[in-house]
Amino acid sequence: MLLKELTEASGVSGNEKEVRDLIISEIKDYVDSYKIDKIGNIIAYKKGKDFGKKLMITAHMDEVGLMIKDIDKDGFLKFITVGGIDKRILVSKPVLVGKNKLPGVIGAKPIHLQKPDERKRALNIDELYIDIGAKSKEEAEKHVNIGDYAIFDSDYVEFGDGLVKAKALDNRVGCSLLIKLIKEIKDISFYAVFTVMEEVGLVGAGPAAFEVNPDYAIILEGTLCYDMPKLDTHLIPTYLNNGPAISLIDRTTIYNRKFRDKIVEIAEKNNIPYQYRKTSMGGNDSGKIHTAKEGCITTAISVPCRYIHSTASVMSKKDYDNTFELLKEILLHFEKGEI
Amino acid sequence: MNINFNLLKELVSVYGPSSNEGAIREFIKNEIKDYVDEIETDNLGNLIARKKGNGKKIMISAHMDQIGFMITDIDEKGFLRFTNVGGISPYISISQRVIFENGTVGVIYHEPVDDMSKLKLENMYIDIGAFSKEEAEKKVKIGDICIYKTEFDENENVVFSNYLDDRVGCFIAIEAIKQIKNSVNDLYFVFSTQEEVGLRGAKTAAYKVDPDIGLSLDVTSHGDTPKAKRFAVGLNKGAAIKVKDNSIICHPKVKELLVEIAKENKIPYQMEVLEFGGTDSGAIHVTKEGVPSGVISIPTRYVHSTVEMASKNDIINCVELLIKFLEHDINI
Description:
The complex is a heterodimer.
Chain A: H1 2-8, H2 17-27, E1 33-36, E2 42-46, E3 55-60, E4 65-71, E5 77-82, E6 94-97, E7 102-107, H3 116-120, E8 129-131, H4 137-141, E9 149-152, E10 157-159, E11 163-166, H5 169-184, E12 190-195, H6 205-212, E13 216-225, E14 245-247, H7 257-269, E15 275-277, H8 286-289, E16 297-306, E17 313-316, H9 317-335
Helix pairs in contact in A: 1-5, 5-9
Chain B: H1 6-13, H2 22-32, E1 38-41, E2 47-51, E3 57-63, E4 68-74, E5 80-85, H3 90-93, E6 97-100, E7 105-110, E8 124-127, H4 133-139, E9 145-148, E10 153-154, E11 158-161, H5 164-179, E12 186-192, H6 200-209, E13 213-220, E14 239-244, H7 252-264, E15 269-273, H8 281-284, E16 293-301, E17 308-311, H9 312-326
Helix pairs in contact in B: 1-5, 5-9
């Protein structure tokens, strides 16, 4: 299954090759052209009916993760985080280090030995280390180099009523949707762009938008979902199973109102459930895309993901399917010249 | 110079929060269309008006967007929750009236809070006087943006009103458009969008215009009120020529030319070294291969409140300085 392969692949920001290769092998027979640009984005073009506007659909390939910064004399690896990671989720998580995916565990002082004040606070990254079972610096150096990346070791698991647990749903879920669109949409021209380094500052999206220079862009994402406790409704960014989340505003973009209203109209007409992404926190590739060159019109459509940026994020297959249905209908409306 | 401040009064009253500048754009377009050679609107909604000339291509930018509140949730009883569009202070917002594009008026208030110093926008709401969700939804939709609703006041010295930021910049640009008859330079007046959320409109407009020189017109802060943080800019001391803020260190030649022109024409001016904030020139000067840029600032008290105050003399001096600069044969 594609989403399983995508989420289990390694692609921390700046090191997207494995994910990129996987995506290219999936799409190459379905696009008219594709290239890897200078910064590492995949820019693919699918030729179909020309509807007079240049449409770009994007998903970022990278995920948050870790990078090895030092190896101590006993062979333990010191690391930094790449992208936004809550340090409280790190302790005792299994990880895979480097190109050969060497197994390791993020270690820390056992609870028995912690002083009372240490128990009350999250351990700092400096107090953690990755244990790869090496006995010395020399032994560790045979397997690991400074600058190597590490990913969370986390399987794709389906559970509950159509739910999925995996790492990197942000944003392999967007990649998976975009690949499915490429495979299933036959008769509409669009650029499919898989970007690099979104998690460290929307780095890839700017150059991609500069090259493609679209009139419209749709950004596909996995976005935060926090719907468990009994919160006031305005504090819940998205709900699981309520359908694709359409962005209003975030740190990087105020999304075009007319385009959003049209998308909502399409969803309602086709009985596709949808929700608004109610928080203004966070941001995505749209920030760089809508202000590239002379500017363009963007929307962001996301699959809600609980526990995002952790070893185990959770999404609903129903939301995934509804997001795909909505995208298909949007493309159909582009084809008919109704957007 | 004789200036009619009625136009400024009208400008501050037109709806136009960041990303939804349609109404103010139409208003400005109508005001200037007979005085410019070309006029267009770009993808981000910037209004770009050209007064042709053979000299340097100068982009003059004044942003037309306003800070405001975007509705993110409507609860069962019809209360609206919101997020900020641009720099909104929770404290300034308490008990202020707001108005939506369709004329719906509401008031901002907050949940009971034990410690007011911890007040956050997420603990505040807008009450439009609806008694149910259904009733509220007839007037307001999620994603709608409202703005502060207050009145314009003036006396012989000052104007005070909401949204002098940056309708006073628009006002100065419009006055220049009307008064410059035969333009030496090739002038692109940009009434930009989304400045308040990160200079977004100016970025795409500058890419399109591709100017030789950038100049923006915007409000700046003040250091002349009781116990104000030390800042050498004050009201009624002249047009402020920006040296720096957080978005730009102004190009020395543009800055020096502004000073020179002010001196030559005996236009009162003051130098502005601002330790925070930013304006459109911040985006313009790093466009493409780089654009030498400067800023004429209007000293303003209580920026981003509902009672921003500026001196009429300063505004007139800014208009004069701008016109003399644009009419100057420039070699930078």
